[in-house]
Task: inverse folding
C-alpha cells in the first residue's frame, strides 16, 4: 500500500474494541466507586503549559514533544501527558473555589516522539485520575489503592509496586548537589544524555536505564535518606497506611518518574513480563504544580495507566477477557415475500433500543443462522411463509437452543421484557 498509518501509530480495529471497552469499563466503575468525575481536555495546549509543568529540561520537552505553530502564530503542542492540561483546567474554571478535594478522571490519546517498540507508540492511550486539594497522606494512599484495585480487577498477579519519595523544593536541591558531587567523579561512565542531566537536572540521572549509567549510580546517596522532617513524616505515614491495607511495596530509591512536577510520593506498578518497558502505570504527588501555573497553592496527587501496555501484559500473562454475552436480535427473512415484514420489524426493534440486524447479502437461512451465531446474537427471528400464513413468528434462543412461536405483538413484548431483564 502507498498509504499506511504513520510510524508509531496503529489502528484500533473492531476486533480489538472488546478488550479496550473492558478496560475502560473496569476503570470507570472504579472511578464511580471512588467518587471521581470525568473531565475531557484538548489534545493540544500552549507549549508553555508543558514547559511550566513537565520541565523545560526534561526529556519529554527536549526530545519527545510534538510542537507546531498554528496560523495565528501560536506555539502549540500535542499533549504528551494529561496532568498538565487537567491542572490548567482546574485553575481556568475556578475549581479551587469548589469544596475540596476535587477528584477528576480522564482518558484519551497522548503523543510522544520516541522510538516505537512493543508497548510504546508515538500515539498512545492513557487513563488517569487526579485528586486536588489535600496534603493528607491518605490521598496518596487512595490513588495507589485505586491503581492496585484496577490491576486486581483485571486479574493481574505478581505486579510489584515500586515506591519512593522525591522530596520537596526544600530538601531536594541540597540532595541534588550531594548527588552531583558524587557522580561528577564518575562522569566519564555516563551516557551523553546523563552528562547533560548532571548539569541541568541531576535527579533525572537516577531514572536512566542505560546499563553503564546504572552501574555508575550504584551506591550514590539515597534521596529517601535525605528528606526534610516534613517529607520524611509524610512518607512514613504513606507506608504505614499501605501496610494497614496490606499493599506490598518495594522501596526503590532510584524511582523519580520522568516528569519534573513530582514532589513527595512517587510510585509505579511494574510487570515482569514486559522486559525494559515494564511499567504499567504510576504517578505521585505534585504539590507545586498549580502554583507553577500561577494558581493558588493547591496540593495534588494522581496517576495514569497505559492502555496498550496493559493489553500487551494481559496477553503475555494469559489473562483472558470475560466471555462476551449474547445480545440482540437477528432477523432471518429467507423468502423474498417476507423481507418487507422483516424490515418493519427490524426498525421497530431498533427504535425500541434493541441491537437488531438483518441480512442484506441474500444469504440462505442456514447461512443467516451461522452469521447470527458469529455475531453473538441472543435471538434469531425466523420469517417464513409457513408461519407467516398463520400470523406467527418463530424465534430461536441461541443461548438455550430453544425455539418458540409468537404472534407479532407478543413477540415484541417478549423481546422488550428480555432486554429489561438483562439491564436490571
Result:
Amino acid at each position: 500500500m502507498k498509504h499506511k498509518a504513520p510510524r508509531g501509530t496503529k489502528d484500533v480495529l473492531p476486533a480489538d474494541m472488546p478488550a479496550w471497552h473492558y478496560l475502560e469499563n473496569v476503570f470507570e466503575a472504579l472511578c464511580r466507586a471512588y467518587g471521581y468525575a470525568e473531565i475531557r481536555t484538548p489534545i493540544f495546549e500552549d507549549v508553555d503549559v508543558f514547559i511550566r509543568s513537565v520541565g523545560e529540561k526534561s526529556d519529554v520537552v527536549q526530545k519527545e514533544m510534538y510542537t507546531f505553530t498554528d496560523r495565528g502564530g501560536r506555539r502549540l503542542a500535542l499533549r504528551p501527558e494529561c496532568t498538565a492540561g487537567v491542572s490548567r483546567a482546574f485553575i481556568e474554571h475556578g475549581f479551587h473555589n469548589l469544596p475540596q478535594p476535587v477528584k477528576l478522571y480522564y482518558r484519551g490519546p497522548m503523543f510522544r516522539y520516541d522510538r516505537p517498540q512493543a508497548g510504546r507508540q508515538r500515539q498512545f492511550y492513557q487513563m488517569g485520575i487526579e485528586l486536588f486539594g489535600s496534603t493528607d497522606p491518605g490521598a496518596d494512599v487512595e490513588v495507589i489503592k485505586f491503581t492496585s484495585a484496577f490491576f486486581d480487577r483485571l486479574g493481574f498477579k505478581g505486579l510489584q509496586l515500586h515506591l519512593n519519595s522525591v522530596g520537596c523544593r526544600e530538601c531536594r536541591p541540597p540532595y541534588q548537589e550531594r548527588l552531583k558531587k558524587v557522580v561528577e567523579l564518575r562522569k566519564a561512565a555516563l551516557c551523553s544524555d546523563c552528562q547533560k542531566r548532571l548539569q541541568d537536572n541531576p535527579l533525572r540521572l537516577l531514572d536512566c536505564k542505560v546499563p553503564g549509567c546504572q552501574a555508575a549510580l550504584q551506591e550514590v546517596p539515597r534521596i529517601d535518606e535525605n528528606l526534610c522532617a516534613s517529607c520524611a513524616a509524610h512518607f512514613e505515614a504513606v507506608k504505614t497506611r499501605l501496610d494497614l491495607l496490606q499493599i506490598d511495596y518495594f522501596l526503590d530509591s532510584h524511582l523519580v518518574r520522568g516528569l519534573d512536577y513530582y514532589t513527595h510520593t512517587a510510585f509505579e506498578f511494574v510487570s515482569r513480563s514486559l522486559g525494559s518497558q515494564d511499567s504499567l502505570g504510576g504517578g505521585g504527588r505534585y504539590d507545586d504544580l498549580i502554583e507553577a501555573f500561577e494558581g493558588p497553592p493547591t496540593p495534588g496527587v494522581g496517576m495514569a495507566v497505559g492502555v496498550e501496555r496493559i493489553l500487551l501484559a494481559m496477553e503475555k500473562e494469559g489473562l483472558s477477557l470475560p466471555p462476551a454475552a449474547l445480545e440482540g436480535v437477528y432477523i432471518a427473512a429467507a423468502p423474498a415475500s417476507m423481507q418487507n415484514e422483516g424490515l418493519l420489524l427490524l426498525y421497530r426493534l431498533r427504535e425500541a433500543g434493541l441491537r437488531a440486524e438483518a441480512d442484506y447479502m441474500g444469504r440462505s437461512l442456514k447461512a443467516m443462522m451461522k452469521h447470527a451465531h458469529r455475531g453473538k446474537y441472543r435471538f434469531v427471528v425466523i420469517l417464513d411463509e409457513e408461519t407467516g400464513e398463520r400470523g406467527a413468528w418463530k424465534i430461536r434462543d441461541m443461548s438455550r437452543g430453544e425455539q418458540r412461536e409468537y404472534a407479532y405483538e407478543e413477540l415484541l413484548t417478549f423481546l422488550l421484557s428480555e432486554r429489561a431483564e438483562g439491564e436490571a
